[in-house]
Design brief:
Number of helices: 10
Distance between the termini: 30 Å
Number of domains: 1
């Protein structure tokens, strides 16, 4: 078996499960159909929950946390399905393994990019804390330091993240290789490939949203066309259309970021900055306190939301990493067993001679 390095992924359709999975009429047991239908039905319900009741919730950090949590659950489900299929790694086609390892590397790179962006935003929060400290006394002499911190925050937030820029290229490659290797003479293999197509489609969808939100650009936001023969296709199309349309609408209005809490802090900064400009305070002490209070509340909501999203991104990274490690371990074990069998056969052959 070749060493796993490069990767692409699967595609399939679903109407009549016998016809779509086994077009030549090969038999799919009731157990396999139940496993597949349960997986796809669960995915459909999970996607439906991702559609916000209010469009204003789109790209709020609480929604982004939910989206990443949903992605983690979907990847956990495919692990469970593989276990329930009882399809040993030694029975996996080499193409499947190559695809899996290549895709897993890409997903780890995407996770690292998102983590670096979230870290950058959290570092920016230090500037906001400094502003609050400077303005705590409402003394005009502190205004200069507060303005300097606000300038530092803007520079931090607007700085380019090269890792994030690479996400779009990675996602494009994942999209181009959405179809999985074809499966022959393996009902379990066809069920696995079909389920993995769903996992990959949802992964590309959610990661595309995160990349667009963090970069402030909807130009490379991905719209996937999924065959309506999948049980989850309608829910997928519904949430993708709703969310992508809202992101494009937000970013076309000229705002710097589509992330709701980050946009709220930016709006609060724009109100606060003129008040402390040149040491002037035309709104009076009460006006300043009210503005600072609102600013502090928005900054705190941003920080808490970022921490929650970062936790889910790290969780997704660990799921991908442990899955990759588990497969590598199985490959090593099977390789040793295979070599052991070869040695045994050679010894037996020599004994016969």
């Amino acid at each position: 078996m070749s060493r796993p390095q490069d990767l692409h992924r699967p595609s399939f359709s679903f109407g009549n499960p016998f016809r779509m999975i086994s077009p030549k009429g090969s038999y799919l047991s009731p157990k396999l159909l139940e496993l597949l239908n349960t997986f796809e039905d669960t995915l459909a319900k999970r996607l439906s929950k991702l559609k916000p009741k209010d469009r204003k919730e789109v790209l709020g950090l609480s929604w982004m946390r939910l989206a990443m949590e949903s992605l983690c659950e979907t990847h956990t489900d495919i692990k469970t399905l593989i276990s329930n299929l009882d399809l040993p790694v030694c029975d996996w086609d080499e193409k499947w393994i190559d695809v899996y390892f290549d895709n897993s590397v890409k997903l780890l790179d995407i996770c690292n990019a998102f983590s670096s962006e979230l870290a950058k935003l959290n570092q920016g929060h230090l500037y906001l804390q400094c502003v609050l400290h400077k303005l705590d006394s409402s003394e005009p002499k502190q205004f200069s330091g507060a303005r300097s911190s606000l300038d530092g925050w803007r520079q931090q937030i607007n700085s380019k993240n090269r890792r994030l820029e690479n996400c779009f290229a990675i996602l494009e490659k994942l999209t181009q290789t959405l179809d999985l290797p074809k499966v022959k003479n393996s009902a379990k293999g066809k069920v696995l490939m079909r389920a993995m197509y769903g996992v990959k489609a949802v992964t590309v969808f959610i990661c595309s949203i995160f990349a667009a939100a963090f970069s402030g650009s909807a130009k490379k936001l991905i719209d996937l066309q999924v065959s309506d023969t999948y049980l989850w296709a309608e829910a997928f199309a519904d949430v993708q259309t709703f969310v992508n349309r809202e992101i494009r609408s937000k970013l076309s209005s000229g705002i710097a970021t589509a992330v709701k809490e980050l946009e709220a802090v930016d709006a609060s900064v724009k109100k606060l900055y003129p008040i402390i400009h040149d040491g002037a305070n035309p709104t009076g002490v009460e006006g300043l306190r009210s503005c600072v209070s609102d600013f502090g509340k928005k900054a705190n909501e941003l920080s808490q939301g970022l921490d929650l999203v970062a936790k889910e991104v790290d969780g997704f990274f660990q799921i991908v990493l442990t899955g990759r490690d588990a497969l590598l371990c199985n490959l090593r074990v099977n390789s040793k067993v295979s070599n052991s069998m070869k040695v045994k056969k050679n010894v037996e052959g020599q004994a016969v001679r």
